[in-house]
Amino acid sequence: MNRLIYESRDSELNKIVLDDLPGGPEAFELAAKFCYGIAVDLTASNISGLRCAAEYLEMTEDLEEGNLIFKTEAFLSYVVLSSWRDSIIVLKSCEKLSPWAENLQIVRRCSESIAWKACANPKGIRWAYTGRPPKISSPKWNDMKDSSPSRSQPVPPDWWFEDVSILRIDHFVRVVTAIKVKGMRFELIGAAIMHYAAKWLTGLIRESSGTADEISSYSASNSNGSCSSWKGGLHMIVAGMKDDPPTVQAKDQRMIIESLISIIPPQKDSVSCSFLLRLLRMANMLKVAPALVTELEKRVGMQFEQATLADLLIPAYSKGETLYDVDLVQRLLEHFLVQEQTESSSPSRQSFSDKHMYDASQRGNGTSAKMRVARLVDGYLTEVARDRNLSLTKFQVLAEALPESARTCDDGLYRAIDSYLKVISNFCY
């Protein structure tokens, strides 16, 4: 402040404006109290702002031992980073302190601390956490409930989902990235991403109040090596089909979707196919970056046999001629077939007996998947055939995309053709 006054060269200066001070008036008041020897209560709520303000005000050890930078650094290192709750609160408070909190490594250190604790063995957890609420509500980070683990009540694998989901998307990405590096199971990471999406993407509407239970059951079933109990992901539908959603909200949601796509684990079944399709629906509506949309389409193709008809009925948000996005489903089917072809030709370094058993198993699984997809495509064709704007070429290309061996019965395809011919004949007359 002395330097600011000196550099101003204004003899009548009676006011100094520090409008870029990180932490604002609250942090400055605490720093001023510290200078005058008044006791300052350091807490998780004020420490990040005060640490940034101390850096801005150059309160270093060069001027006096035990200055404010030293005090706040010590509190961060020995108090905050050792606590799950405090690490979450501090990282949340860093949202208003860019780029200071980033440059001072507060965001990185809190993210690492949270990641280490999230990866801890649930049996060894003795700290308080919020836990999964009975019903997902709007995010309020300061309304955390004490939910201390007890010996009689085991800590669930998804105990950290709710606390982490309060974070802004860029900080959530930092935490998830750190968790990945530390070896967290991919199905738990995927379930955490679905939980976050359910909370922050307001364009997704839950069809039932059991969404959180379904996310939990998905992570549990995957951790047991099976996903047979998973019945269609988050069960979400897109709200509305507005051409021009609110600009700010659309921009925020687009950023969230793009960020979530980029951190979904690459392994198959890390998230449900239903969730991927609903994310894809919203990505198309909000005009997400084409490269990320393509990546999402490929992910759907990896587990296309798990899709449902309701998931595939995605409106054509671009001003096309058809009601539903038939071209999108065509691309998803192509990605599925490429994936099937890749998997069937992948084993190369196995013994003859192992390779024979693997080939037999793969043929069985591949055939079963193709049969499920064939039934799905036939049902989709029957539904979209009612659209009189659907061209014969698009109908035919989609109907013929699967190999003949995929259909053990052609009844579904005949029904689709019959529906299409009825619509065409009614339109002609």
From TrEMBL:
It holds the Pfam family NPH3. Residues 158-429 form the NPH3 domain. Pathway: Protein modification; protein ubiquitination. The lineage of its organism: Eukaryota, Viridiplantae, Streptophyta, Embryophyta, Tracheophyta. One of its GO terms (biological process) is protein ubiquitination. Keywords: Ubl conjugation pathway. It comes from the Eukaryota. This is NPH3 domain-containing protein. It comes from Citrus sinensis. Belongs to the NPH3 family.
